# Entry
Amino acid sequence: MSAIRSSKDLTNDQFGYSCYTLVVPAGEALTAQVESLRNQMGVTVASIPAHVTVKGTFYDIDSLEQVKQLVEEITRSTAPFFISFSERAFHWWADGGALTVPATPPIQALHDTLVATISPLGKPAYRDDPYLVHMTLVYGQSPERLQQAQALVQEMDFGPGFMAESVDLMGRVGQAVGGEWRLITRFGLGD
# Structure
């Protein structure tokens, strides 16, 4: 396995992206709710709309078309499944926080297959395992802002969860601060 390297300061590659990730996008209402929280907290780093990551950030790939082809093969053979928020737990780190999600067999299997297939094609920005299934809420926060976010999150109703119906291949243009995550391709599950 390649050495871990932070993706924060990577520059764009030959395909126009500094790094990539694979995520299950949340629905519009949940995305709007998370975006509102991020706006209240003043999140300034490049953000992907509300999602659950199924293959962590990677970079330095030789072929974007090969990544797309392999992800399409995997998603085509994966049935849609429900991502549950029933356990409503949070994971906080030094400058951010997330709503954790139970690692059900369908999401764990999708993650494991994507990691095994896609990891050899690039370099990791962080370890994919152990897999902490979560929906990032805020990050890049000062300790004071993080406390404020924690209080706001406790009052939020995220609902029961959402259906995983697709996987998005996202690419970040530029660096974490000042850059922007863009949708490259959406792959329907079971399509």
The CA atoms of residues 41 and 149 lie 7 Å apart. The radius of gyration is 16 Å. The chain has four helices and ten strands.
